[in-house]
Design a protein that fits this description.
This protein is α/β, with parallel strands linked by helices. It has a domain of 275 residues: Alpha-Beta Complex (L-2-Hydroxyisocaproate Dehydrogenase, Chain A, domain 2), CATH 3.90.110.10. 33% of the residues lie in helices and 18% in strands. The protein is built from eleven helices and 21 strands. The strands form seven sheets. Strands 4-10-9-8-11-12-13 form a seven-stranded parallel sheet, sandwiched between helices. Strands 14-17-18 form a three-stranded antiparallel sheet. The chain has a three-stranded antiparallel sheet with strand order 19-20-21. The longest helix has 23 residues. The two termini are 36 Å apart. Its main location: plastid.
């Protein structure tokens, strides 16, 4: 029995999420696997007594304020709001999501006039935790958060979504070969790509966070042929943020002075933090930081291995800063890029101006007009040092692509990875 993510009207008739209606129901739907909906409760906006219709047992199963019906057109504070945006989040009971969901609900990401619906995807094992997450969202009283639904079926959860943030993935366990991780997580993203292709908005924007995120994004887009390949992203923004921080530390400035930083390639230890094009207070980094040895060796290695060092210090992965980087990545697509600057994102390489191999997902410099789309930056400097490292990361991604050929519709898989380059801390 599939889980429904329809928003139920007080009379019990389903209304699809995202449908424009004069009176929109704002509901936290707690839909339990293989259980009937136990009750429907209608509450008035002005706080008058609630009218409850209970079936089949005499118990209430509605969660407080999200049982209310809101007339957004009639309220001065909401009538100027934009159309509801549907956002799906997989791995919604995990630590990254625990930080991210509240940022989304607060308006920090999409703006203070943008109401949202959160559609949270978990598993049977995590379903009770999903209920807890939704309860915390309810207790936070976010006015922009108009709907929340939870479920374990991506074909239900992804219905009509405008954004899909794919965080959930299996972590790498002790002794697990990287090829095995690619196959296990690849199956997850193949299934989610098929679900997005079937039921999501035709212009859905997809951000893949679960590792190995570049190749998972490739698998996902290959299984969603009706969605533009350009709409798929692999998260490399945390790597960019880490690079900016290290350059600021070395130059003795605050990190808002650092711009034009690119992470090229794979989200692994072959990633290439680009100091050739980066700027500090408008000047090229190499004109500010004269220590070429530090730039080529210590800076690069520090960025590549920052996640592992953090785990050694903190005893856990970088969930909070990952959530912040997801926010940064989305905002870079929904707000215009500052003049002359750019941002990093793992995107589809076909048609790229750099000579990087086509048909992989590779982190490159992007600009956006704030409409959710982007263009690749063509005016970048390139030297032998940078190009040599870009080609190494490219080779790794081409090898990963062969490992998952059975998941992308390209025949039998052949896995011959050159070395183990998973980010430290993911073992």
């Amino acid at each position: 029995m599939g889980l429904s993510t329809a928003a139920y009207s007080p009379a019990g008739s389903p209304t699809p999420l995202g449908t424009a209606t004069a009176r929109r129901r704002s509901v936290h739907q707690f839909l339990r696997p293989r259980r009937p909906l136990l009750a429907t409760v209608r509450c008035s906006v002005d706080g008058a007594a609630a009218v409850a219709t209970e079936t089949p047992a005499s118990r209430k199963d509605c969660f407080g304020v999200f049982c209310n019906i809101y007339d957004l057109k009639a309220e001065d504070t909401t009538k100027s709001w934009k159309k509801l945006v549907n956002i799906a989040v997989s791995g919604a009971a995990g630590m990254i999501s625990n930080h991210l969901l509240f940022k989304l609900a607060s308006g920090e990401v999409f703006g203070q006039d943008q109401p949202i619906a959160l559609k949270l995807l978990g598993s049977e094992r995590s379903f009770q935790a999903l209920e807890g997450v939704a309860m915390e969202l309810e207790d936070s009283l976010y006015p922009l958060l108009r709907e929340v639904s939870i479920g374990i079926d991506p074909y239900e959860v992804f219905q009509d979504v405008d954004w899909a943030l794919l965080i959930g993935a299996k972590p790498r366990g002790p002794g697990m070969e990287r090829a095995a991780l690619l196959d296990i997580n690849g199956q997850i993203f193949a299934d989610q790509g098929k679900a997005l292709n079937a039921v999501a908005s035709r212009n859905v924007k997809v951000l893949v966070v679960g590792n190995p995120c570049n190749t998972n994004a490739l698998i996902c887009l290959k299984n969603a042929p009706n969605i533009p390949a350009k709409n798929f992203h692999a998260l490399t923004r945390l790597d960019e943020n880490r690079a900016k921080c290290q350059l600021a530390l070395k130059a003795g400035v605050f990190y808002d002075k650092v711009s034009n930083v690119t992470i090229w390639g794979n989200h692994s230890t072959t990633q290439v933090p680009d100091f050739l094009n980066a700027k500090i207070d408008g000047r090229l980094v190499k004109d500010v930081i004269k220590d070429t040895k530090w730039l080529e060796e210590e800076f690069t290695m520090t960025v590549q291995k920052r996640g592992g060092v953090l785990i050694q210090k903190w005893g856990r992965s970088s969930a909070a800063s990952t959530a912040v980087s997801i926010v940064d990545a989305i905002r870079s697509l929904v707000t215009p890029t500052p003049e002359g600057d750019w941002f990093s994102s793992g995107v589809y390489t076909t048609g790229n101006p750099y000579g990087i191999a086509e048909d992989i997902v590779f982190s490159m410099p992007c600009r956006s007009k704030g409409d959710g789309d982007y263009e690749l930056v063509s005016d970048v400097l390139m030297d032998d040092f940078l190009w040599e490292r870009i080609k190494k990361s490219e080779a790794e991604l081409l090898a990963e692509k062969k490992c998952v050929a059975h998941l992308t519709g390209e025949g039998n898989a052949f896995c011959d990875l050159p070395e183990d380059t998973m980010l430290p801390g993911e073992m």
